[in-house]
Amino acid sequence: MSDAVLTDAVLTDAVLPQGLASVFVGKPDEGCRIAVAKCDCDQEHFFPPRSYCPRCLEPMARKTVSGEGRIYAFTIVRRRAPFGLGEPYAIGYVDLAEVPLRVFGLFAPGSLTRLKVGAQVGLKVMPLGVDGEGKPCLRPAYEVVGEQHG
Ligand SMILES: [Zn+2]
Predict the structure, then answer these.
(1) Would you say the C-alpha torsion 129, 133, 138, 141 has a positive or negative sign?
(2) What is the tally of helices (H) and strands (E) in the chain?
(3) Is 125 exposed, middle or buried (0-12, 13-18, 19+ CB in 10 A)?
(4) Cα(44) to centroid(ligand 1), Å
(5) pLDDT tens, 10-61?
(6) pTM of the model
(7) How far is the CA of 45 from the centre of ligand 1 (A)?
């Protein structure tokens, strides 16, 4: 598990690392939204959002969508974790519910034993690991939601 001890003060100051803050919108314990880009030329969505459409080269509209979706694929990584993440940690792909888009992400440590292809997930911002400077930070992570069957 993470050896970073988080005090209340540190938690209050913790923020999303800069690269994530431009793409994920959310506060701890709230649902996190994801910024995506969409072009009208073919209605295709992109994540991470890009400024220009690769097809028509026009500027693309940016919007945020819910992070809710279903697990398409996942893997539990048992090697040394980057960014102060606990070990093991899980990553994978989620098919978003609101737009036809498959996104790559990190799964919440508390969901590791409940990961299953097709399981419903929500996206939350939570204190998780450290940023590029080694400071405790917030990170978006997918949490398995709903009843556990089996
Ligand atoms: Zn386009």
Answers:
(1) negative
(2) 2, 9
(3) buried
(4) 8
(5) 455 678 888 888 899 888 877 899 999 999 898 889 999 999 999 999 999 9
(6) 0.84
(7) 10
Cα 52 to middle of ligand 1, angstroms: 8
The per-residue pLDDT for range 86-98, each reduced to its tens digit, is 999 999 999 999 9
Interval between CA 53 and ligand 1 midpoint (Å): 5
Q: Is residue 114 part of a domain?
A: yes
Cβ–Cβ under 8 Å, residues 72 and 50:
no
For the chain, the domain total comes to 1
Computed on alpha carbons and rounded to an integer, the radius of gyration of the chain in Å comes to 16
Examine residue 40 and state whether it is found in any structural domain, yes or no: no
Inside any domain, residue 99: yes
Look up residue 147 and give its amino acid.
E
Q: Is residue 42 part of a domain?
A: no
Residue 144 has which token pair? 């398995």
